[in-house]
Structures are given as structure tokens and as C-alpha cells.
Write a structure and sequence with these properties.
Elements: E1 6-9, H1 16-19, E2 24-26, E3 42-46, E4 52-58, E5 64-70, H2 79-92, E6 101-105, E7 114-119, E8 126-131, H3 134-138, H4 140-151, E9 155-159, H5 164-167, E10 174-180, E11 183-188, E12 197-202, E13 205-210, H6 224-231, E14 238-242, H7 248-255, E15 260-265, H8 268-280, E16 290-292, H9 295-303, E17 309-314, H10 326-342, E18 344-354, H11 361-375, E19 378-386, E20 404-411, H12 420-424
Parallel strand pairs: 1-3, 8-9, 14-15, 14-17, 15-16, 17-18
Antiparallel strand pairs: 2-5, 3-4, 4-5, 6-7, 7-8, 9-10, 10-11, 12-13, 18-20, 19-20
Helix pairs in contact: 2-4, 6-7, 9-10, 10-11
């Protein structure tokens, strides 16, 4: 018998955003709370007149006090409830025709605090789940059982490496779960060795993953569609893949007709995976280097060489971790893009991306303008990029959109010199 959830009361006029479809209740929007409320507890949220808003999980100590999961009166405490939500999430991605993709994108799939990625097909698939709230963390067995019944994967990794878990007071650990007749076996995901290897196909590209040593769960799935969109720009020329990780941008460019590819990343294991992926895709005969070095240092070294690139891709990790770090992160993006533009051949192309939520599209466009002024070149924006269709955005939840990028053409000749005004407004 599931106990009746504790009621949390909103302060007056704090229900408008929630009734508009946003699922987050902030701690300062609530009236005084019961002293004995357990972290992750199921709660019922009501407005100041006692009218029900919905049910969700309570997070003690977090700015986001409640994430609403259900507004219709169903109780999110059973395997059946999770399986029904997961089934809808899987159905939403059926048009992609891709087994390796993000299956659950938190708020966008009415499962705030939960992310699930699938790598591979059917019984050979590995699922990577991130529980980013205290409530989801407490219900890992329900989630695992629902995923097992619906998809039957060979393993589920509960990946606790995300820094977002720190905001919820959750440990950063990674567990490898497999289903046995006796129940769930839990092991250290960072010690799986050969069991953690997986080869997957993504948009015609074969990628080998090692789940015992990965970033972001496996691949940067939000960029998969953009890899393919940008690939043809390098046809007949050279491509430079900065912060390459497993090499998706450069590998797709080679498949589309690039004749040379250089990969740069500060992780030796990532570059080893690039080498393996070149072989898997029959691309190892192409000339190019794999450079293990911090990105700015690597670009400075490349600028001392004569080679310039038809396509340079700058897809770094987030530089702006919070609002208070905006100025420093913004300058980092300017420095990165200035050097990247200098490495593009005249008339060539730059793909520049930011996954920093606090760096908006307009602010990032301004970053590129300032970087071009510093580099003494002119830009023409050809298209704007965003996260893939397996990372859908809700218009009423702006936080579901974070990835932005631009495809620009770079001209070095005939550029006007930067004005004092352009340089002084950094």
C-alpha cells in the first residue's frame, strides 16, 4: 500500500509557471515545510488555496525542491508507471530509425531527473541511465525493472558521474547492473574491462565504446545529426576535429570525402579510440595526426605550421558552468574561436558549438563576432545548429535547450581591420 503523499503548499501567486507546464518547484516558492520530510519522498504540490497542482519527488537541500512527474493523479511509485512513461519516450524516437540514441531526456519526456541513452540493438544493447535527483536515485530498481521489461538490454549502467548530482547531494559513482534469476547484480562500472566494450552504428558510422572509461555516458549523442550535416563541407580538403573525444566530426567528414583529418584531444584514451574507429570504418589509410594536448596549446602549435583546413570543428566542453563564471567562460570561447578561425583556409568553414546553458544563442553569436575581429577575418553565418531530435525541447521549459552552434564561412582576404570599438567591448 503506497502511503498518501505529504502535501507541500505553494506561496500565493507561485503557481502560474507550474500551471503553464513547467515542472520545477523552487524552494523559495514553498510555504514552511514539514520537518521530517525524507529526501526523495513523493509529495503532492498544492496552491495556497489547497488546489492540487501535481505530484513529484522532493529534493532536500536543492534549489529545485520538487520536480513534478504527474498532474493527473497517478502515483509514480510502481514499475508499471515507469514502464508506461518509458514506452512513450521510446515511441517518440521511432521516426529516427536509429537504435543508438537518447531514449529519455528528463523533462522533455515527463521524467524530470532521469536520462537514459541506448547503445546498440535489442539484447546486445547497453543502457546508460543518469539519475539526477534524489527521487530518481531512490527508485533505481523500479527504473531498472521497467527498462528490463521494455527493452531487455544486456546491461544497465547507472552513471553517477554528472556534476549535477552534486547539487542534489548524491555520490558520484558508476554501477553496472545485470539481471540474474536472483535479481539485480550491481558491480563497479569502471572495472568491467572487456565486458564494457561495445561497437555501435550511428548514422552509418561504426564507433567502439569502452563503458569502463567514458565521458557523458558514452557518446555525445546530441551532436550525431550535426556530424552528418557538416561532413560534406570538408570534401576534397582537410578537417581538424578539436576536443574530438571519439572523433565523430572528423570520421564523418572523411566518409563524406575529406582527404586528411587531424584529431586533437587532451585524453590519450579518447585518441586511442579515434584510432580504433578509423580502422573500424576503413578510414585508417587517410593521412592525419592524433594530438594529445590541451586545445589552445595544440592550436598554437598548428598555427606555426603551413597547413590550413577546409573545415575546423570547435566543439569543446562547457566553458560557462554557472552565471558567475560567465565572463571567464566567454573569454575562453573567444580565445578558442579566434585561433580556430586562423586555422581555416580562406573561404573554408568553421563549425563552432557551445553546450553551456548559460551561454545563450545571441551571446554566442557575439562571441564569434569578437573572435573574428581579433583574428582579422570576416564571417558569414551559413546555418545554426542545435541538439538532435532525440533531445527534444519543450517551449515552456527553456532549460531543455542548451546546445547551440553555427556553421560559418571564413574569409581572410579583403577583411576590414577591427575597430577600436570592436576590440574594446570584450
Amino acid at each position: 500500500m503506497i502511503p498518501d503523499p505529504v502535501a507541500l503548499i505553494l506561496r500565493k501567486d507561485m503557481d502560474r509557471r507550474l500551471r503553464g507546464g513547467h515542472p520545477w518547484v523552487f524552494s523559495n516558492e514553498l510555504a514552511p515545510l514539514p520537518a521530517d520530510l525524507e529526501p526523495g519522498a513523493l509529495v503532492r504540490v498544492e496552491d495556497h488555496r489547497g488546489r492540487r497542482i501535481g505530484m513529484g519527488y522532493w529534493s532536500r537541500g536543492s534549489l529545485i525542491a520538487v520536480r513534478l512527474l504527474d498532474r493527473e493523479g497517478e502515483v509514480p511509485e510502481t514499475v508499471e508507471w515507469f514502464r508506461a512513461r518509458l514506452m512513450k519516450a521510446v515511441a517518440r524516437r521511432s521516426h529516427l530509425g536509429r537504435s543508438t540514441c537518447r531514449l529519455v531526456y528528463a523533462e522533455s519526456d515527463d521524467l524530470p531527473g532521469l536520462i537514459v541513452d541506448r547503445y546498440g540493438e535489442a539484447a546486445d544493447a547497453v543502457l546508460v541511465a543518469q539519475c539526477l535527483s534524489q527521487g530518481m536515485e531512490l527508485r533505481r530498481e523500479l527504473i531498472a525493472e521497467a527498462l528490463h521489461q521494455l527493452l531487455g538490454p544486456r546491461a544497465i549502467i547507472f552513471d553517477g558521474a554528472s556534476s549535477f548530482r552534486e547539487l542534489e547531494g548524491l555520490p558520484r559513482q558508476r554501477e553496472w547492473w545485470t539481471r540474474t534469476p536472483e535479481g539485480w547484480r550491481r558491480e563497479d562500472a569502471d572495472a568491467q574491462g572487456i565486458r564494457g566494450l561495445q561497437s555501435v552504428e550511428v548514422d552509418g558510422l561504426h564507433m567502439e565504446l569502452d563503458f569502463s572509461a567514458v565521458q557523458k555516458g558514452g557518446l555525445f549523442l546530441d551532436q550525431v545529426e550535426n556530424w552528418t550535416r557538416a561532413a560534406a563541407l570538408a570534401r576534397g580538403g582537410a578537417v581538424l576535429d578539436l576536443c574530438c573525444y571519439h572523433g565523430g566530426w572528423g570520421l564523418q567528414a572523411l566518409r563524406a570525402g575529406a582527404v586528411h583529418a587531424d584529431f586533437l584531444d587532451r585524453s590519450e584514451s579518447a585518441l586511442e579510440r579515434v584510432t580504433r574507429n578509423l580502422t573500424l570504418n576503413g578510414l585508417s589509410h587517410h593521412p592525419g595526426e592524433r594530438m594529445c594536448v590541451p586545445v589552445l596549446d595544440g592550436m598554437k602549435a598548428l598555427l606555426r605550421q603551413p597547413r590550413r583546413y577546409r573545415l575546423v570543428v570547435a566543439d569543446p566542453p562547457a566553458f560557462v558552468k554557472s552565471r558567475k563564471h560567465f565572463a571567464v567562460g566567454r573569454q575562453g570561447y573567444i580565445d578558442l574561436n579566434r585561433q580556430a578561425m586562423a586555422l581555416v583556409e580562406d573561404g573554408g568553414f568553421l563549425v563552432s558549438c557551445s553546450c553551456s546553458h548559460h551561454m545563450g544563442v545571441d551571446a554566442f553569436r557575439e562571441v564569434l563576432r569578437l573572435a573574428a575581429s581579433r583574428a582579422g577575418c570576416r564571417l558569414r553565418i551559413l546555418s545554426q545548429l542545435g541538439q538532435g531530435q532525440d533531445h527534444p525541447q519543450l517551449p515552456q521549459v527553456l532549460e531543455t535547450g542548451y546546445l547551440k552552434g553555427f556553421v560559418v564561412q571564413v574569409e581572410h582576404h579583403g577583411s576590414s581591420s577591427p575597430t577600436h570599438d570592436e576590440v574594446s567591448h570584450d
